[in-house]
Amino acid sequence: MFSNKIRALVILVMLASSAALAQTSAKKATSQSPMPHAAKGPATVAEAQAFMKNAEAQLEDLTVRASRAAWVQENFITDDTETMSAQANEKLTAVVTQFALDARRFEHLKLPPELARKFLLLKLSLTAPAPNNDAERKELTELTSKLDGMYGKGKYCKQVDGKEKCLSLNDLSRILASSTNPDELLDAWVGWHKISIPMKDKYARFVQLSNMGAKELGFPDTGAMWRSNYDMSPEQFSAEVERLWQQVEPFYISLHTYVRKQLIKKYGKIADRPDGLIPAHLLGNMWAQEWGNVYPLVAPADGGQGYDLTQLLKDKKVDELGMVHYGENFFKSLGFAELPKTFWERSLFVKPQDRDVVCHASAWDVDQQDDLRLKMCIEIKDEDFVTIHHELGHNFYQRAYKNQPPLFQDSANDGFHEAVGDTIALSVTPEYLKEVGLLGTVPPESADIGYLLKQAMDKIAFLPFGLLIDKWRWEVFSGQITPEQYNKAWWDLKAKYQGVAPPVDRSEADFDPGAKYHIASNTPYVRYFLARVLQFQFQRALCQAAGIQGPLHRCSIYQNKAAGERLNKMLVMGKSKPWPDALEAISGQRQMDATAILDYFAPLKKWLDEQNQGEKAGWQGMDTPETAPRHMSR
Q1: Is residue 424 within 8 Å of 330, Cβ to Cβ?
Q2: For 534-563, what is each residue's pLDDT tens digit?
């Protein structure tokens, strides 16, 4: 569920080209520097325009080269590809950092709005800004590549019947998703969390170096730099995400209370903590970020959602490629053109048996035009069916804005990119499944509670997790959380927002944040929280545009060209305008609004409150009006 590999300058900070190619590109960029050191006198608008034209041309070229190399590195993880990536990244990061530093010459000019926006985006384009000296920049890029590779190669190895058995994240995730043996669940959880212990010191040094680079660009720290990328100040953005969380927190508390009660019925004392927290290994997901895998344990007593999508796919003998075709056909039904032939030739759909790859699902736009790709180790299950729709949302968004200038080839804000595919996935309703031939009969309205509960187990359960990842990082970057507090602060936030606890005692010898891909890869995460809000706002607006009546959770925009036109109107804008303009284009609103979530799940909220009668809601250490989280002051 990740698209920032395709963003023009983010790629430059991640995994790059071969060393020889990078050296050639860097020399070319340096020799054609748009900001010669000999430049004297006051800066002019004409000079700024020439600077940006040259910068965009060079960065576009470097990005395509880096994209191809990054694809190879993540699909063939070896010591050699890691070394080559680190060497190349060092050169490429030097070029983009120099552009950002040189651009400060034009900071006080009154520029045309479009040009001014490009300069702002150039400055904010790096997720890991590097110090502007060779030794520390090299160290940063080596750490970036090393941490990404350590995660990708992570395995839990143990002795079974006298032989060593090594389990990948996919293997361990299957155990957490399907097993109800608490000892087996605990072993899988603890085993995976061992892979991140060696990352801690490297990550702490990475934070130091990244902050040095951010300060050179004029920001207090890297976290403040990230929060500046939302067309508002860092302080305003921190307050904005907290406002959205407050809109949905009561709903989450109701869901948490109900799920905890059902898990206690299943597991007894193991799940029944006096503080009201839920042990993390019992929620069906390695990070307790989505709970849909334990839906069978909490389904309504009078029946579930009426069908099992995983079983439907298997009954129809749908293979990995067939699942992708379902996703493509949805977008085609809205009026979008089919994916290019190269998509099917160059994508990775199945985990290779002969090498290590980064299996985390991601969508790629290799040439910023039509070389779209999906990288995913697909399994025949409902979760992956939905994820495919999500990832293709990235691909169709990428193609929609391909005619924008390079710095505008991105979503309005990063939450938009994540929300588009999820909006489509909301239309994977029983009505849609029947229409495409996967489901014989649409379940009656009496099954809606089961359907909504299964949705909420992923959509609502995710919200606090989507928020706390970057809350932890913002405070790490600002120095409020030191390396000596990394793990304690992580679990304090998980308790505060999620109501979740580790299944065994943890200490600062552990580094549990690094067991999550987005920490190891330095991928900003609040985008996923925003996406969970925006997708329902988008869905409500598109259903209205399509003229579809009835409950929001029963609306599918499949085969509705009017909805497709409204969606495309927003997609083609890319990042050319502030995100409120893009939001207005699709929804008519200029403020993110979580009330669409409440509209969608209204029947479920009523049902949960009925089920929770007599139960103590919440948990020890959760937010109250008196202990609400502090807003970042930087």
Answers
A1: yes
A2: 999 999 999 999 999 889 999 999 999 999
Length of the chain as a residue count: 634
The first and second tokens of residue 462, run together, are 């995710």
Q: How far apart are the first and last CA of the chain?
A: 29
Q: What is the 3-state secondary structure (H, E, C) of 422-484?
A: HHHHHCCCHHHHHHCCCCCCCCCHHHHHHHHHHHHHHHHHHHHHHHHHHHHHHHHHHCCCCHH
Looking up tokens 């207090």 gives 220
Q: What are phi and psi of 365, to 5 degrees?
A: -125, 85
Enumerate residues 6+ apart whose C-beta is below 8 A from 291: 259, 283, 284, 285, 457, 458, 461
| CA–CA distance, 511 with 196 (Å, rounded to integer) | 6
Cα 186 from Cα 279, distance rounded (Å): 10
Residues 571, 587: Cα–Cα separation, whole Å: 13
What's the pTM?
0.84
| Sign of the CA dihedral with 266 first, then 597, 248, and 459 last | positive
Q: Among all residues, which ones are annotated catalytic?
A: 391, 518
> Using an 8 Å Cβ cutoff, are 534 and 413 in contact?
no
CA 308 to CA 296: how far, in whole Å?
A: 10
Nearest CA among 479, 521, 514, 471 for reference residue 629: 471
